[in-house]
Write a structure and sequence with these properties.
Blueprint (H helix, E strand, L loop, with lengths): L1 H36 L4 H33 L4 H21 L3 H25 L1 E3 L2 E7 L2 E4 L1 H21 L6 H5 L2 H14 L3 H17 L4 H21 L1 H11 L10 H13 L24 H34 L3 H26 L16 H18 L5 H7 L4 H8 L22 H9 L1
Antiparallel strand pairs: 1-2, 2-3
Helix pairs in contact: 2-3, 2-12, 2-14, 3-14, 4-5, 4-7, 5-7, 5-8, 5-13, 5-14, 7-8, 8-9, 8-13, 9-10, 11-12, 12-13, 13-14
Length: about 450
């Protein structure tokens, strides 16, 4: 008996110690992951990495999903892909340039970008090209531009600058300063976009408007009033256009009209269902062979699900989740009001647009014709989003110790060029090839030096 008890106790002890060691390893791993996330440049690299991965995936999927339609329309299987890779070749350098630009430049760009967007939207209303019942495209110099896409970036920067100035002047204690001129500016853009029958972009602009009010701490009644106004406008926009109401009813029950209103949604769901867990393989989609309308743009997420399966769609969702988390992290870790507001506005724009597109493809939201950011075909959408992410990268450098960590690695060639042009970051680090200026020691430092 005594020996049995003696042997059983160490055995039980070994079990407890083993479990504790395993739990300790997990806890240690969690703490190590948390420490890595707390590094100064975490947001910067998460934004940069997820943006590049989504852009690369988008190029691959645009090629795969557009080959059939491209060959049918132009005789070349690469016509749409060539336009997309050309837009990426323009957008990626602009993203890098924006990431190295001082924040004060973005504050100055808000008003001219807003004015330019209004002019382009007005021209689109009167001289735009109509496709599928919507007037969203403007031909300039042989290039077709969708003016509503740069308007999202313009409103994000302009709205952030307007509220940041009012915050610096301590004017946001009055409700009229919260809404003027932010509400009229948003209303003008939404009206011009609606005249082109673009409900999806209107919803994104209103979402950015509500997000900006939320960040500045708008009173509950004003915030609820803004949400109610947005809901009322969406309801009016749906009611005044018969085709929007048809889309809404077909979204509720696509099987009721499988050859017209519910056709696109049903074939998008067929594509997702065919993909299963791992997909049919890259290039193996069946729905892109004339069955699914716009497989390279509005419904490219369905082709991703068909060719890469549930795993591929979850990777895309996770990458957008990383972008959203990183943008919110930047806004929560900085003190500058403009940086906070601009980070929230750009993050809201990209993540809400992604959620709306994915929601329409999987059948939980009505079809709005809004593209999947960084992934869908369309240079007018890709270039502004890449510029917006470049601005978000520049804002990420405003996090505590982030600029110091970058300065310790030495200036890049682009930063040397900006410094030579007088567009450096305002003295955050010494120009290349020059020793840092020695500052006069404080009285405390002088006393410490004398003691030594």
């Amino acid at each position: 008996m005594h020996m049995a008890v003696t042997t059983s106790v160490p055995s039980a002890t070994r079990v407890r110690v083993g479990g504790g060691a395993s739990g300790g390893a997990v806890l240690s791993g969690v703490r190590d992951f948390a420490r890595r996330l707390d590094r100064p440049l975490t947001s910067y690299y998460l934004i940069f990495g997820s943006a590049l991965l989504l852009t690369a995936l988008g190029l691959v999927m645009v090629l795969s999903s557009s080959m059939v339609d491209s060959y049918t329309e132009t005789g070349s299987a690469f016509s749409i892909f060539n336009k997309q890779i050309g837009a990426a070749a323009i957008g990626l350098p602009l993203m890098i340039l924006a990431s190295q630009t001082p924040v004060r430049v973005f504050r100055l760009l808000g008003y001219p970008l807003m004015l330019g967007s209004i002019v382009l939207l007005v021209l689109t209303v009167f001289r735009g090209e109509e496709y599928y019942g919507a007037v969203r495209w403007l031909e300039i110099g042989g290039l077709t531009v969708q003016a509503s896409e740069p308007a999202k970036l313009a409103f994000a920067l302009w709205g952030a600058n307007v509220l940041a100035r009012k915050e610096e002047l301590k004017q946001l204690v009055e409700w009229r300063h919260l809404l003027v001129p932010l509400l009229p500016g948003c209303g003008m853009l939404v009206l011009l976009v609606l005249l082109g029958s673009d409900l999806g972009t209107s919803f994104v602009l209103m979402a950015v408007f509500v997000a900006l009010l939320w960040v500045v701490g708008a009173p509950g009644r004003l915030f609820l009033g803004a949400l109610g106004l947005v809901g009322a406008l969406v309801g009016i926009m749906i009611a005044v256009e018969p085709y929007r109401m048809a889309r809404l009813t077909s979204f509720w029950n696509p099987e009721a009209d499988p050859y017209d209103g519910g056709y696109q949604l049903l074939h998008g769901l067929y594509a997702l269902g065919t993909g299963g867990l791992f997909g049919v393989g890259i290039g193996g989609s069946r729905e892109k062979w004339g069955n699914l309308p716009h497989p390279e743009s509005d419904f490219i997420f369905a082709i991703i699900g068909e060719e890469f399966g549930l795993i591929g769609t979850l990777i895309v969702v996770c990458l957008f989740g990383v972008l959203g988390f990183s943008g919110l992290r930047v806004a929560s870790r900085v003190k500058d009001p403009f940086v906070q507001l601009a980070a929230i506005a750009i993050t809201t724009w990209i993540t809400i647009q992604a959620l709306v597109n994915i929601g329409t493809v999987i059948g939980v939201l009505p079809i709005t014709g809004i593209p999947l950011p960084l992934v869908s075909a369309g240079g007018s959408a890709l270039i502004p989003i890449l510029v917006g992410l470049g601005i978000l990268l520049a804002l990420a450098k405003s996090e505590p110790d982030a600029r110091r960590a970058l300065a310790a690695r030495g200036p890049t060639h682009l930063e040397r060029a900006l410094s030579w042009l007088g567009l450096d970051n305002g003295g955050a680090k010494a120009p290349a090839g020059r020793a840092p200026t020695k500052t006069r020691p404080t009285q405390v430092q002088a006393r410490r030096n004398r003691r030594r």
